[in-house]
Amino acid sequence: MTVQARLESWRNAGAITSPQHDVLLALTRREPFSLFVEINALLYVGVVSFAAGVAWTVTTYSARFGDAAILSTLTAAFAAAVYYCFTHGRPYDRHEVKHPGAAFDYVLYLGCLIFAVELGYIEARFHPFGADWDHTLLLAASVFFALAYRFDNRLVLSLGLSSLGAWFGVRVSHFGLRFEGSLRLPALIYGGLVAATGTALHRAGIKRHFFETYLQVAAHVLFIALVSGTAQRDGGVASAAYLGALLGLAALAIWQGTVRGRFVFVVYGAVYAYAGVSARVLPALSGDGVVFAYFAITATLMVIALLVLSRRFGRDE
Question: Which of 99, 101, 88, 102 is nearest to 37 (CA)?
Answer without folding.
Answer: 102
